[in-house]
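Hi team, as promised in this morning's meeting, here are the two structures we talked about. I've kept the exact order from the run log so nobody has to guess. The first one is mostly here for context; it's the second one we should focus on when we meet again. Sequence first, then the predicted structure tokens.
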Amino acid sequence: MKVDERTTALQLLLEIERQQSYSNLLLRQRLREKDARFAARVTALVYGVLERRVTLDALIAHYTKKPVSKLDLEVRMILQLGFYQLLYQDAVPDNAAVNETVKLCYAVKKVSAKGLVNAILRRFVREGKKLPLPNDAVRAASMRYACPEWLVRRWQKAYGKEEAERLMASSFGPAPLTVRVNTQKTTTEELTQKLEEAGVLVTPVQGFPHALHLAHTGNVEKLPGFSDGEFYVQDLSSQICAMVSGVQPGDVVYDLCAAPGSKSFTMALEMRDEGAVYAYDQYPHKIRLIEEGAQKLGLTCIHAALSDAAVWEENRPLADVVLCDVPCGGLGILRRKPEIRMKKLESIDSLAPLQRQILETGARYVKPGGRLVYATCSLNPVENEDAARAFLAAHPEFEPAKIPDFLQSARVEGSMVTIFPHHFGSDGFFFFFFTRTKQSKEESFCRSSN
């Protein structure tokens, strides 16, 4: 690995920290024009440090005998890069990892720190590169799996220690690349053949005939069929969320938090592009993104429009299906957004009032006999089970819907489905399905008086 790759990784890490940038967006922007091998190595370093930061900071605190907040940010990031290479990049010789990491002090004008960096990293090597795990079980799990202690406690309480450990262990490494075949333009077999001829490793997803796992792709946007709209990138959990909405050809569907649009696209395909999918978002640039995607895919039933999902619009007709895939804490997508690991518990739980308001608003659009879907990409009972139970307790006009058989391998509790990454090799996700059995008295009065 060349020095400039480490320097680029350091600069990106500093920018992510200072600007609170999304790592996936920043890396895509900064590395778009770079050599593929260079981009891959930088990406591995940046994501590796971000997802292991809890562990790396614990090591820094152990060897410096001071809180990491007392170190200059540049020095802290340099040490994170050094410890990461020594612990998790076996192909890098220890001496090279230490020497090249020390050189980073020059790149960020922290020459005075090179002695400290060198001494700490070499001592770590001499001591066998072992994690100094504490005796406390929660703190030890936090350090081993790079999860904040509050997250260890919450997952253990919600899912049990064994399942929580599997969940933490599956939160590392690159997430799988999964695509949805646009069955309005091609077939799974035709697309598979086209991609394999281009050197892509294509793996069918058992039980999901229009989903494919791809590997050895290079830039996905340059793959045959992508620019023609024959497929689009969508994680399997997201595809499942759209599929279990139960949409049928001719339905009227509301996707209240639709951007970037993949669930709207999949519902439109399940409907054979017959009916209407109203894809709402509150930001104009995201509406344009949905419109461009629908046009490329050739889906004419999608209608993108500005709307605040938390605000009820009384003149909007009732729908057969309403999807509320609400803004959430993202605890199911740690592999994709590793900086989420550094969030505070309070900031994640603070989303609950907005999530419940969107669910309340979405419910008012569902016609009798219609279906309401509540979903998050978070693994957090406060955002998930608590919201579903509170909604049912307050809304006797809704009842839980039947769970499809293909979801039985996930964690199922009544009509609540939690997908862990190790269930399907997909993102962590939560769904709850409601069927409206009747209108509430208040809604009947409002509709009849308008």
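And here is the second protein, the one for discussion:
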Amino acid sequence: MTQSDAYLSRFMALHPKKIDLSLDRIEALLVKLGHPERQVPPVIHVAGTNGKGSTIAFMRAALEAAGYGVHVYTSPHLVHFHERIRLAGPRGSAGALVSEDRLVEAFEACERANDGAPITFFEITTAAAFKLFAENPADVLLLEVGLGGRMDTTNVIDKPLLSVITSISHDHADFLGTDIEGIAREKAGILKRGAPGVVYPQIDAVRAVIESVAARVGAPLVIGGQDFDVHEENGRLVYQDERGLLDLSLPRLAGRHQHRNAGLAIAALRNQSLFTVEDAHFEKAMQVVEWPARLQRIAQGAIPALLPAGSEIWLDGSHNVDGGRVLAEALAELEERHPRPLVLVTGMLTTKDSDGFLHNFAGLAREVHTVPIEHSSASRSPEAVAEAARQAGLAAQAHGSLQSALEAIASEAFPVAPRVVLTGSLYLAGEILAFNGTAPK
């Protein structure tokens, strides 16, 4: 166990008995720390259900291509907590994940200032992130919401440069409920007076809520499908808004949904005046962008060695119904271009709709192999996930470990090497990357 792991374990023990979405605890701690959230670089605040991390990855790639220093805050991590905090490098160079020494230093300061008071894990670690962002020079901070928006810990930022809202759908029903308008209202809570809100194309009910909140707080809106558009044409990504048209390479991130996330990132950066991002910088961003566990191709490591030779292996952290739909669409497109037997390896949490998620793959996947998420107490049993798959009309087999699932696939006779997709949870994705020996850097 590292020093930072020991701090993280102690932070879990500070968790209040009742979780309420409130800013009181984080605000009290930030006062004791000297308000680091007021000393960070200009903030682009990002909320939404799906696509937040990918949209941030596109913005980071474009801003770094333009020579800016970029801090990044995302969650959850996949393998190591350090992945959540990326600190800007020297001007003109890419940032790097926070070092163990710097992280421990920030954790120690937060633990001392908090002095044993009840606080959530996300609150105290976000306070540590703000401290690190305030102490290290950068031009901009890309800040991802943890949960919801209105009462999310990150919403202590009261004057962002921009607010960005990605695709909104159902997720986190235990905190946000199942009413899509209510979910949209929580996400739109990051909109602030005078700061443009750049919004992914939404269904009518969601867009109406966002427009209502924006009008009330005085945030000008730029809306996908209305003020900007993005589509694929002749193997190119075409972006268009009132300022003109961009003809770019298709993004390095796989899947048509990433075209829309790229379009949102471009729209965000074209609707602020603090940073100059030119067409060439967007072009480079499409070519270099990285975001692990989002239709990530796995070509090396322990997993390819266990599966049949020539297998095409993908890792995707999708975990809700809409994420599953988007993944299934991308896989159907792959199947159309390059047919292979599709095999899913899936593990899910008890807090997620496994039935709804797996229904997306009916008629597409040949079989499903279910596994536990070994380091989560909220892991749904492989047997329960397998039964959900059968209810969706899929052949399914439960396994006690990831390795046994992979070995079972390797023992089968396929007409051609299969397309194996590991999905269902970002927590599972982290365990898979650790097992494969390819943790994010």
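Starting points for discussion:
The longest strand covers residues 228-233.
Residues 3-288 form a domain with the UDP-N-acetylmuramoyl-L-alanine:D-glutamate ligase fold (CATH 3.40.1190.10).
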